């Protein structure tokens, strides 16, 4: 494990700028894959992560957050994960697939810069497929979808029915057109998430 930790640290340092920071949108997908592969091979991951998650979920701030969201942490299925090393490897695959889409900081500052092409659509579909190889994502999507609907004004929310569906293929098929539709609305300026002072703008400015 000591040797693997050394490899992981070397890979992590290779992603950093000189000041120790990360430019997320500039990260190299191959290096991301190496970093998460190195982490996934650490034996301590299987022992440490379940303990860390159990501790985090028991803290007052997290308990309060889930209570406010009306989410039962057990619905996320974190206690059912048997291979945390595999989940870390998949997380690297997800980040790599996202980086392959090729969105830049300029795109996030102004989504109308994005040109919708068949290649871009193919990469978005690939990202969605990789996303659903994660057991965490499979469990989380239905839970978060219900929470999202609960935030919509009731006169609109009642028009949207979230099925009691846990099959990952169903949600994967639902998410693909949703992501493409959202991107189309953003690229044409119909949907604007970059308004000054908005929470989304603050998040994007940190990427």
Summarize the entry for a quick read:
The protein has 207 residues and is an all-alpha fold. The chain has 11 helices and no strands.
Explain this structure.
It is a single chain. By secondary structure, the chain is mainly α. The protein is 65% helix and 0% strand. It is built from eleven helices and no strands. The chain has helices spanning 2-14, 29-40, 43-58, 60-69, 84-101, 105-109, 118-131, 135-150, 154-157, 168-187, 199-205. It starts with a helix and ends with a helix.
Question: What brief labels describe this structure?
Answer:
single chain; 207 residues; mainly alpha; 0% strand; disordered C terminus
Radius of gyration: 19 Å
Average of pLDDT: 76
Indicate the structural class. Answer: mainly alpha
Unreliable spans are 197-207
Tally of individual helices = 11
What's the overall geometry? globular
Termini distance? Answer: 32 Å
| SS strand fraction | under 5%
Percent helix range: 55-70%
* Succession of helices and strands: HHHHHHHHHHH
Largest sheet: none
Count of DSSP strands: 0
Chain-wise SSE layout:
Layout: H1 2-14, H2 29-40, H3 43-58, H4 60-69, H5 84-101, H6 105-109, H7 118-131, H8 135-150, H9 154-157, H10 168-187, H11 199-205
Helix pairs in contact: 1-2, 2-5, 5-7, 7-10
